[in-house]
Amino acid sequence: MRVRFAPSPTGFLHIGNARTAVCNYVLAKKMGAAYVLRIEDTDMERSSRESEQSILEDLRWMGINWDEGPDAGGGCGPYRQSERFDIYKRYTDALLEQGKAYHCYCSQEELDDMRKAASDAGRPFTYPGTCRNLSAADRKKFEDQGRKPTVRFRVPDGQTITVNDLIKGRVVFESENIGGDFIIVRSDGTPIYNYIVIIDDTLMKITHVIRGEDHLPNTPKQVLIARALGLPVPEYAHLALVLGPDRAKLSKRHGITSVEMYRKEGYLPEALVNYLCMLGWATESGEDILPFDEIVRQIEMQNLARSAAVFDFVKLRWMNANYIRSADLARITDLCVPYLREAGFDTDSYPRPWFERVIDLVRGNCEVLSDITKHAPLFLREIMEPNEEADAILREEDSRKIIAEAKRLLETDLSEENFAAELVNRIKAATGLKGKKLFHPVRALFTGSLAGPELDQAIPLIGYERCRARAEFMYGKYAG
Ligand code: GLU
Fold first, then answer.
1. What residues does CATH 1.10.8 cover in the chain?
2. Per CATH, which fold does 381-479 belong to?
3. Is the pTM of this model over 0.90?
4. Distance 249 CA to ligand 1 centre (A)
């Protein structure tokens, strides 16, 4: 069995397409199918190699490995459509010769007028077949006018196209209702998606075409081309659409829509892949978080949803937070470093074991890796300016006693060796304060905030020198 992912390199990898890529991958693993990556770059103006590169990079980042593709080779190449024009031309010549396609000389303006007339009359546009039966003389006249023809496929009348979609079920189309004879080759000689996609699916021996439901209306055109060329038709599985929370087409205004941005914000690939698999699929047990191999084990094509799935940004963040908490600590530390560097911290100046303990202590508060820049500075800054809440606490009379005692202890009685174990107890003993009255000011004093990790874990990591510096700083501010 063989599946394919066929992106058009006209921009970044959109999250909806990433979901198609992931579904193909997981189902390929399930079926033991080969995964073919085909680049659909016939729109010369909008396609670019940079976009292709970034799509490949995003796919790799998500852990998708293809068996055949532009960089991987394989027996059915080339894998870029722009390198296959001679193949398509052979098919076009055959269609023209057999009268199954014809040259059309209608200009863009003429077609626009026809389209406008249809829309003014409130009916869908159907090409009226103006150039269907041109004589050689007609054609010469147009050629002499300098018109460059497109090639149109002659849609046969009275054909029923039944697609037994593996997800959507049986979908029936009539050839009368697909908009008339459609263009298969543009006037500049570049072929059109709906035409060559089926040629490539056949030549690349694709057995299962798994793609977004937005391509379901294209399927009858592709099937008609296959019939005209005597090519076999693959199985189709159209994945239900992904909508934004307001049930409109998922777009930028809903949130991040490019895989690259998810990566940059600090989503883990396994979290994104897990979430994308859960769009339109649910486990029997209702579990959401499961490793890729387990998804492969449990997923079944026929259990994928037929109706649209809503992209839940909050749930994805929640899922990512779970993955950050349970992932290998050394890996998470490595992944956090660039965010902290970017924020201006000299991460190389700390011993690695200490750094990992810091990350471990705060990763539970990170939904995305970039959140580390909110939670780690507590350990990376010399001084923490108190926030509003902490300021209010530190102004209280009892707090002044605590600050003064902390400063004294750190400067005289306590040392690097014993401060972590003794500091809070000694302040308690000296001031007679306890509970909230003790812990809120102590926390505010050393962290500048009332929220954050457990104090008894935070204080040793902040370290003796910085605790001393912070006590001195707060003393100057509140108790001096
Ligand atoms: N290049 C098409 C797209 O990106 C692929 C459609 C298909 O899978 O047939 O939408």
1. 327-372
2. Arc Repressor Mutant, subunit A (1.10.10)
3. yes
4. 17
Is the dihedral angle over the CA atoms 385, 386, 387, 388 positive or is it negative?
Answer: negative
Query: Which run of H or E residues covers position 103?
Result: strand 101-104
Fold designation for 85-239: Rossmann fold (3.40.50)
363-375 per-position pLDDT tens digit: 999 999 999 999 9
Residues of the chain with CATH 1.10.10.350: 381-479
Span from the CA of 8 to the centroid of ligand 1 (angstroms): 7
CA of 388 to the centre of ligand 1 (A): 53
Tokens of 127: 């090409």
* Ligand 1-lining residues (CB < 6 angstroms): 6-8, 40, 197, 211, 215
Q: CA of 461: how far to CAs of 124, 247, 414, 416, 464, in Å?
A: 69, 47, 16, 12, 9
Q: What is the CATH number of domain 327-372?
A: 1.10.8
36 Rama sector, left if φ>0, alpha if ψ -120 to 50, beta otherwise: beta
Residues with a catalytic annotation lie at 252
Whether pLDDT at 480 is above 90 = no
DSSP letter at 345 equals: -
